[in-house]
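re: ur question from earlier - yeah i can do the single chain one, its not a big deal. heres the input i used so u can compare w yours
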Amino acid sequence: EQQQQQQQQQQQRKQTQRIKDPELERERERERERERERERERERERERETNGETRRKIERERERERERERERERERRA
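and the output i got, formated as tokens:
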């Protein structure tokens, strides 16, 4: 009972603080937005790295395919 009352009082104080300082609340919101933006940027960076890896794999595969093609061509001539 007492604990519940304390929790309610804490909740009320938190709400009161928010109401008292809307500027602080806006600043927190801006900080959260910046954090989300940084997270999106990191996500895009990982995406680019993945795409780069994929491109290199495809390029290596094409190079091997061209090499096999040249090998078959040499065998046909022999």
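The CA atoms of residues 4 and 50 lie 51 Å apart. not sure if urs matches, ping me
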